Every structure is written in C-alpha cells, then in structure tokens.
Task: structure prediction
Amino acid sequence: MAYYLEFEKPLEDLENKIDALKRLSDGSDIDIASEIKNLEKKAADLRREIYSSVNPWQKTLIARHPERPYTLDYIGLIAEDFIELHGDRRFADDAAIVGGIGKIGGIPLMIIGHQKGRGTKDRIQRNFGQPNPEGYRKALRLMKLAERFKRPVVTLIDTPGAYPGIGAEERGQAEAIATNLLEMSRLKVPVLSIVIGEGGSGGALGLSVGDRLAMLEHAVYSVISPEGCAAILWKKGSGELGQGDFARAATALKLTAQDLKAHKIIDDILPEPLGGAHRNPECVGRKIAEYILKSLESLQGKSMSKLVDERYKKLRKIGGLTQIQNLQ
Result:
C-alpha cells in the first residue's frame, strides 16, 4: 500500500477508490473504465494542485519520503557492471555509505552515496543513512582510487547528517569530514554531486564538494534540520514544538533547491515527476544519467590543473556580503 504524507491525504482517498475499482473490474463483466478514467483525471488535477504550492517544510517531508529512491536504487537503474567496494582499510565498513565502480552511458566512473535502508533491519544496519567516520574514510579511499585510474567521481547525497554518537566522535568524525572537504576540493578528476533526497549538515557536505552540485526538484540541503533549528531558535522542548515551528524554520533556512539555485549555492535543478521521485524512479534515473553525461562532456576536455583551479574559484564564490549604508 502506498504511503501518503499528511498534506497528500485528500489524494489518498481518491487513489484508493481508483485501485478498488480496478480490482473490481479485473476479470468481471462490469464496464467501469469510463468511471476509472474520470477519477484518474480528477486525481491528476488534484495532485497538480497540491504540488503547485508545496512549502519548504512539505518539501522536507517529500525528501524524507520512505518510498523515495535511494542511492542503490538509482545505481541499479542507471549503472552498468557496478561492483561495490567495501571498507576504509582502517576500522570497518560503514553501510551508511556505499560506493563502487560502474559505467553510465559506457563511461567508467566511481559512484559513491549515502544509503538510508529500507525496512527496520536494513535501516538499523545502515544507521538510517547517518555515516560514521569510517564511512567518509571509505568514500575518500574510493575517490583516491578513482583519481589514480583517472575515473570521474559521482556522489549521491541523502542523509539527515553524520552520526553524532560518542564512538563516532572518538574516532574523529569532524576530522574525517574536514579531510574529505580538503581532498575533494583538489581531486584531479571531474567530481559531480547530486542531492537526491535529504542533504543534512556536514554529513552531506562531506560528499558534496565538486565541479557541479545539482539537486532533485524536491530535495533539501541545509546546515541543520528544521526540527533542530526550531529547537535552538525558539528554545522549546521537543514536546512543545509543532508543525508550525518546523514550517517556520524550514522557510527561514532556505533549504529548497529553488532557494539554493537563486542564491547560487547549487548549479542545477533536476525535475521530478508530479508527486515526487517515488512516483516514477525510472524517469528520475534517466534525468540523473543524462545530467551526469552532459556534465562530464563539458568537464573532461579540461586539463586537470584548470579543472582544480575552476573548482577552487567556484567554491570561493559561494556566499557574499551585503553592505547597508547608515541611514541616520
């Protein structure tokens, strides 16, 4: 059974009715095709109406949708001959970050991304997509391997944030992320990063330094979650916070793809089907593959020194100052 977000509830009743009518008509003499067609048109119009005005908090919920495709789903859709590689060669293999070699459109490359997991057992194994330091060290090992063999790097970002546990801190969580930022900024191969779901804090940043940074239409990318932001700014306990607080924080954070494109933090926005990526993963997979191939076409003709220099300048241009004159 499909999962519906709170703001999609009007759509749930309608689509459940359509499914019930389809089951009723299957193998029977009852002709209700016209009724089903009318209801499908009504559902499409309602979905279009709902998604024409989603706010930043609702986009955050879409980015976290439990049926939304994850890194391994997209790899299965767009990559050929993918071989997953494991371990950081220092401590352990972190299942919250997956990576390996494969081909997209015949081009061999290294694909690395966060993996949240499906089902309780898988989510626990993958720590709900929250990497430990060994995850970032594994990712860096694979990036260095790609650099050695002159293979482009593609990263898919989808995490609520790096794991904040005591063990992770003891093993150097901040250092591992900081090292990734440094090393990714000077990798001598093209680096493409795409936020496919939730891009949270340093956990997302540790895989998103590159030549191009894109986001899916309903993905989010932020220094903190709306819930965390609301708790800090309005100094309320978790039981006192509500949806209104989260919505207010999400709007203030400017975490949507559209906001970030306007502020020149990201380079491109990849469209999603009406209702989100989970409505048609194959379509979104094709969009991602097309974007990767198009971006690589423009990057691979450049010398490595020029590539690194342009990446440096791109990163330095992020952000800016606004001077307000004293009106007194």
Q: What stands out?
A: The chain has a mean pLDDT of 91. The longest strand covers residues 191-200. The two ends are 63 Å apart (CA to CA).
